[in-house]
């Protein structure tokens, strides 16, 4: 090995230029032109694929013809056979479905990449943004079918040990399978070179022949493309260069988070592909020895700064390799939209090419620079996939995700804030979802309490719920504080200071409110004077119940006027607050489901926030979970939207509703496309402890389905 000498390459280039200049002056003035033609020929040769693609388009794939066949085993596609001119490759795919949330993101991402290092196989990974979210594939290639099966099984076990859950996938989901037969065409560069030579012969101008020299390296490839044949067809991708300096877990975790954010801002169809070939450790070891020479020269004061930085990078990678990192040769490519976003994460787009697509798909070998697994952490599934919800002991099942086998759970026992919000216009399935949530929560030990202004939940008396008509079994409003009572009156007719003082003295003295000569009490007397209901008794009974804000004494359900409904709910929430605070801190026990929440989620006159919002903010640790159900985001106080622990938005095609949902749920472009189709049953779940959405289709409980529920009448 030649020892490190700073500036040696620059000195050699300078000597070559001087020699050529002297020859041009003493031998022939045409020599510089010849040298320039040879230099152009070299440049053309190194860019031959790009040049041919500019002229021939997808016919350039004939430079590396390949055919892909899929082999079925037991009725499903098991693996692919890639037939090339001189060899045959076998390929099998895995799809990453889920992963355990990692405690150390950088380490988990690095371990995933390291688990793909297998000396006998090449690997391609692909993250493709489809309807609603990314799909992540790992495809392995080998010239031996048995070696491939062993590698797939080994990788499967390693990923499972690392908390990454995969399953065998159809190779056609990842590999190109459309082939095309191309006929003969004119070899354009060859004809151009021949035309130049003919012109030389006719004009006797030998200098003109120099123009044909840059075309000579293209002729064999030009003839191959013009000859035609059959090959697989792929769309062009943007080749990427990634000059990463990541060498520790913290930096790797940061890079994963950046790519995770950027990857969700692109439209549906975006894709990132990478081809990983195991690198020989001896190559990196040789580079490390060279780096030591550079650093030694730097200590002696004869090194160059650029060489020192490069040497330090190589030496750092070598040390990581000694600690267990895995080395790879890597080729990267992506769709143009994603390439533009990844520029912000250190990826440099080069040219767009179909040959680049073949390389990253693993069909063609590639041997670029060496990377270690720490540097490749942003290519792991942690940057693209979102972890599934968990079936914790108290989790409530909602439905399935984008895939039928993906269960979606509402983990009430993991939420620091258990209060929720369900939003959806008429016909979107709000009531069905609320009934489903209540029934399933009941099975997990929660006690549902439903505030029902319209009486639509009354049929659940046959499903084990106690129905309480608040006009027939009236609340004892004397059990609340004067301040709470004054606040409730703000919904009907605000009390003056004198009226409040009279009311307060009566309550403190234990007098009956109905003995007072106060006109505002006469307004509420028909609905609250026959006090027989204690909210505390209902809560302590442990039975699910429905508080209907109306009466059935006339034989049909008649709702209380809206302002008195608000008064009743205000008083009732105050009673619940006092009771659960007296019980002390405890796990969520009661689920207070407020239907038609637009009636109660706005503050009364002179108040800054509604009682239900205050209740949610105060009682998240006292066993009471508040769930508001409403038609529109604007029906609910902004404070509640910000502070609730989870939000569930039901799909609908209303433009204004979709726009508001995109804002409050931070929908990505792909999620927005999925959501705005307005298919009944689709929903987006966002939980406070996760910075991303879960797309799902609600699977209603049998009794909650409209057609079954209506039969209870």
UniProtKB/TrEMBL annotation:
**Keyword vocabulary terms for this entry:** Membrane, Transmembrane, Transmembrane helix
Q: Does the keyword Coiled coil apply?
A: no
Question: What sections of the sequence does the record tag as coiled-coil?
Answer: none
Q: Tell me which residues make up the AAA+ ATPase domain.
A: 416-650
Q: Which residues cross the membrane?
A: 12-45, 189-216
Checking InterPro entries in the record gives:
AAA+_ATPase, HerA_central, P-loop_NTPase, T4SS_component
SMART domains the UniProt entry points to: AAA (SM00382)
Q: Which SUPFAM superfamilies match?
A: P-loop containing nucleoside triphosphate hydrolases (SSF52540)
Q: What is this protein called?
A: AAA+ ATPase domain-containing protein
Instruction: Please tell me the species this chain comes from.
Output: Infirmifilum uzonense
